Amino acid sequence: MVARGFDYGAFYAYDGDLYEPSELTRGPWDPGSQHAGPPCALLGGEMDRAGEIEGARVARITFEILRPVPIATLSVSTRVVRPGRSVELLEGSLADEHAEILRARAWRIRTEAVPIDGPHPVEKPLPAPDEAEARDFFPTGHDIGYHFAMEVRFVAGAYIEPGPARAWMRQRVPLVEGREPSPLERLLVAADSGNGVSAPLDYRRYVFINTDLSVALRRLPTGEWIGLDAVTHAQPDGIGLTDTEVHDKRGPVGRVTQSLVIAERG
């Protein structure tokens, strides 16, 4: 059952060991299913907190989307499958009352100061959010959903213009009611939108839904804004790939890939 007691104040309410999604989690493809960003952030955040190495952070996390995530009560389970002093491997699962929905693995690596000598690549940050502009989300048939909960500003491209895009995203609401999102959670809420902002095809004729989300991080982002510099490649055999460089205001923080199923609507 959808939680309706917190007036769209967050993507989720926490009730004991269960998470109740609000309608803000609704995705663009099906009115009864969530956008994959919030549930991946929910699972990823819990996995990060389950780590046993003090001072470690997630270096890579990959989510397998086993089926559409319903707008229904969810449970999360996590475990450390390869403990260590410097590196640990975690597994996590998100399920509803019927079956497992998301499965993930993450490497957490201990952090410590290391003197690094040698040349560093020249990195160009995205133009700041103040230099970007809001543009319309493609029509979904419902007013309340993920697109309502996220502020989006485009540097280049647009939802309704197929092609590469550069966009900034910021949550209007917390991930979980009463809890400040972690830097990792903020990134994961937005990271699944790479294929949306850089839509490869006309959304009125095609769907392009990702089966996974793989995130490799150089560092954690700072601040509320997450930048996506995304391009999606659609192939005539019905498979696509989205490649997204993720930014904060300082510059690039990591890379995201998504494997896509492409099909004609109807």
Task: Give a structural overview.
The structure is a single chain. The chain is globular. The two termini are 28 Å apart. It has a single domain, classed as Acyl-CoA thioesterase, double hotdog domain (Porin), CATH 2.40.160. Strand 5 and strand 6 form a beta hairpin. 12% of the residues lie in helices and 42% in strands. Strands 1, 2, 3, 4, 5, 6, 7, 8, 9, 10, 11, 12 and 13 form a 13-stranded antiparallel sheet that branches. The N terminus is likely disordered. Helix 1 runs antiparallel to helix 3. It has 266 residues and is mainly β. It has four helices and 13 strands.
Defining key terms:
disordered N terminus, 13-stranded antiparallel sheet, 13 strands, Porin, 4 helices, 266 residues, globular, mainly beta
Along the chain, the helix and strand elements come as: EEHEEEEHEEHHEEEEE
Instruction: State the fourth-level CATH superfamily.
Output: Acyl-CoA thioesterase, double hotdog domain
Amount of beta strand: 35-45%
Q: Which parts are unreliable, with pLDDT below 50 for 5 consecutive residues or more?
A: 1-6
Q: What is the count of β-strands? A: 13
N-to-C span: 28 Å
Number of helices: 4
Major sheet characteristics: 13 strands, antiparallel
The CATH C-level name is Mainly Beta
| Mean pLDDT value | 92
Number of domains: 1
The CATH architecture name reads Beta Barrel
**CATH-derived topology:** Porin
Label the overall shape: globular
Structural category: mainly beta
Helical percent range? 10-25%
What is the radius of gyration computed over CA atoms, rounded to a whole number of angstroms?
18 Å
